[in-house]
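Researcher: Let's walk through a ligand-bound prediction step by step. First, I give you the protein sequence. Second, the SMILES string for 1,3-dihydroxyacetonephosphate. Third, you return the three-dimensional complex as C-alpha cells. Ready?
Model: Ready.
Researcher: Here are steps one and two:
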Amino acid sequence: MNTSARRQVKAIVEQIIKEQIQSRSLQRQKPLVVANWKMNMSLEKALHFLNSVQSDPQDSTVVICPPYPLLYPVNIAMKKLQTGVQLGAQNVHWEDHGAHTGEVSVGMLQEVGCNFVLIGHSERRMAGESEEAIQHKVKQVLQSGMYPIVCVGENSEEFKQGLTSQIVKQQIEAALKNLPNISNIIIAYEPVWAIGTGQSATPYQAEGVHQTIRQSIHDLHGSIAHRIPILYGGSVHAENARSLAAYENIDGVLVGGASLEVKSFQSIIRSFNKELGSA
Ligand SMILES: O=C(CO)COP(=O)(O)O
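Model: Step three, the predicted complex:
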C-alpha cells in the first residue's frame, strides 16, 4: 500500500472510532478513568501530579487511588485545587472496627473523602485474598453507599488454556451473588498476564470478555447489568486508550503504570472524552 492509500485508510479508521465513541457516549453513562498508584508515589510527587492533572466532570469521571497514607493530604489538595478528580482507596476491611492490625474500615475511608475502593485486585488475590473476603468487602462497601471497583481476570496459564470466560464468570458470581442491590458496583476486567507487562489485551479481546461479564451479571441480577460500568485494565497507555474507548462494552479503564505520569494519564483521560479534537 502506498503512503497516500495508507493515509486514507488511517483517516477512515479514525472517523469510525470517532463516530463509535460519539454514539456510545450518547447511549451509555460517562466513562470512568481510574488511576491505581499501587505502592508508588511520594507526597511531594502526588501534590505535583494533582497540580497538573485536569478533568472535566462533564466528560468523564476520573478517580485516583493512592496508597493509604496519601489519602488524607490528597483529599485536602483535591478540594483546594478543585481538580474535578475523585478519590478512591486500593483496599478495605469488611468490619466496621476492631482488632484488625494494619486494616482500614469503610467509615475511615469515607472520613478522608473516598467514594471508590478497589476490591479483589489480582495482586491482592495472589497475596491470599479469598473469594469469601472479597464478597464480604463488596457487601460492606455497597451498604455504605461507596462504589466498589471489583477486579476480575484470568492468569496467563488460564488464558493459554482458553479458560478466560469460565474464570471471570466464577469470579463475578462469587463476588456478586446474594447482594440485594448492586447499582453502585463497578467491575474491572484485568487479565493478569497484561498487568505491568506492556502486553495489553486487544480492544476486541477485551470487548468480548466484557460482554461475557455483562451476561454473567445479567444472569445474577437481571437488566441492571446494562448500567454497570465495566473497565479494562492491564497495560493501558496513551496509545491504546483511544481504541479501547471505541468499544461499546468498555466503559473506562483502570490504569497502573501510565497513571504515575501526568502526561500519559492526561492523554488517557482525553481519549475517553466526548470531544476528540484534543485527543
Ligand atoms: O493493575 C493494574 C491497574 O489496577 C494495571 O497495571 P498496568 O497499567 O501497570 O498494567
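Researcher: And what stands out?
Model: The two ends are 27 Å apart (CA to CA). Residues 30 and 69 are 29 Å apart (CA to CA).
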